[in-house]
Amino acid sequence: MGCKIGSMNYIVLDLEWNQCPYGKQFEIKQLPFEIIEIGAIRLTSAAPDPSHLPAEPSYLRVEDTFREIIAPQVYKKLHHRTQQVVHLTDEDFRGRRRFVPVIRDFLKWCGPDPVFCIWGSSDLTELQRNLAWYGVPSPFPFPLFYCNVQKIYSILYEDRKSRRSLSDIVDALRIPVTMDFHDAFADAYYTAQILCRIPEQDLLCNTSVDYYRVPSSREEEYKISYPTYDKYVFRSMDGRMSPLHDKEITSVICPVCGKTFRTRNDTEKYICKRAKAPVLRGEVITGIETLKKLTDVIRKGDNTGKSRKTQIRGPQKKIRWRSSGSKNYITAVYCPEDGWVKGKIRVRPCGTDQFFTVKTHRIISEEEALGILSKMYEV
Fold it and tell me: Which CATH code fits 9-213?
């Protein structure tokens, strides 16, 4: 999905679901959560007002609403946590329709080319799991882009990393609370209220991608370019470590010029050059001690047990990745044209002994790059 603004069909969606009331050991692995309520608001974009502010909803209008409680078929008894959170009882399910007819009506109601907008990242994944369980053909394209309103709000107005609750943001924006939270329709309504306060350009340039379905072949792999970084999604593989043996995954691509790096040559040349001159082109060099230590490590080799003769073959040195948690790896590479590039690899499960990889590249400061390299080389 690009940043093009036009007549968009936004579906603000919220789901409530139940889980196995007898514990995880008795749950159905293919259906850990069964949808019991759908709430949605259909919005369409009018001509954008260039003078509108985030606190002044002006370019979206409500076209229709959808609200229905669904009779559970798998987990017929409400889990105690579900009872604590949602405002539903066993009486509310009497006479209700089952999932298949409800979801068919809902998908038809969504209309053509819907852009789903949700709070968080779970609802579309669980919706697709329920579709698969009940044998309903998925109408969603691949890859499936959507708007994570919670994430986008943090990117635009907070620290990019925090994920505050829906009620916190509603309170911060002073949106009148007229319905209880944790009701599917009420949460969709409040999400729509926040959505209307986000400029449409920023909304469409910060979409997320759903990972329920991942690439199954090299041809299905894809790249997404965001305003501040590039994201690459690679196919599923067997085994935990196999992605790190793929040169396409372990290479780093500058998000500005597009140059591909598979060795550490430019990075090592930059470090050695900086370390020799505390002042270069009139600029005071930060982290000079770190640079000198890194230079010594590079000249002496990586201390990997290989002979020094093997270690100093610059063209043979592959980009080094450092573990950053059990499923994450990071690196820093110097691009002569655009500066330091941070690479991050996330390895995620997608089935029994199956994993897929998400890699991101972004431009960073020299200070941040030295921090990454110093940990990688234990300086």
Answer: 3.30.420.10
